[in-house]
Amino acid sequence: MRVVPVLIICLCSGLFSLASGVAMGDADSLRHSRSAFADGRYLEAFSLAKEAYDAGTNPPAATLVMARASELGQMSRRRTEQLYLTALELANHKAPVLGHLTLFFLHHGQPDKAAQTEAAFRAACRFNCVELEQQISAARQNR
């Protein structure tokens, strides 16, 4: 008879540890998606960022990773643009999203949209925008 309470305790503690592992996996999805993105594994980065977004783990950052992975993974242009616009809606700091959206428009031959987003980028950028500014300038010269 004493075996049953021990089994119940083991089962409960096992379930609790499993549940906490699942929650940690959701929190780690965004970090792993950024790592996959940095390694050039764009489909994996997109998938992991989508998991993080679905779990509610920092939706603005997850959406930006999905948009950038979608762009560099050469997914649908329309879908990529929609992801960037969603990231822009969700973002607390608009400058990085506007900078990447400007690059997206420049790379896809939409200079009018690029000019609009670049103006908004420059207005929103207060600091730490040097790298994106350099990328935008280089993309303008390469057109």
Provide structural commentary:
The chain has 143 residues and is mainly alpha-helical. It has 2 domains: 67 residues; 51 residues. It is 82% helix and 0% strand. It contains 7 helices and no strands. The longest helix has 36 residues. The protein is globular, with a radius of gyration of 21 Å. The N terminus is likely disordered.
List the helices and strands and how they pair.
Blueprint: H1 3-38, H2 42-54, H3 59-72, H4 77-90, H5 94-107, H6 111-124, H7 130-141
How would you describe this structure in keywords?
7 helices; mainly alpha; 143 residues; globular; disordered N terminus; 2 domains; 82% helix
Q: How would you sum up the major sheet?
A: none
Distance between the termini: 79 Å
Number of discrete domains: 2
Rg from Cα: 21 Å
Mean pLDDT: 81
Q: Poorly predicted ranges (pLDDT <50, ≥5 residues)? A: 1-24
Give a quick summary of the entry.
This protein is mainly alpha-helical and 143 residues long. Helices cover 82% and strands 0% of the residues.
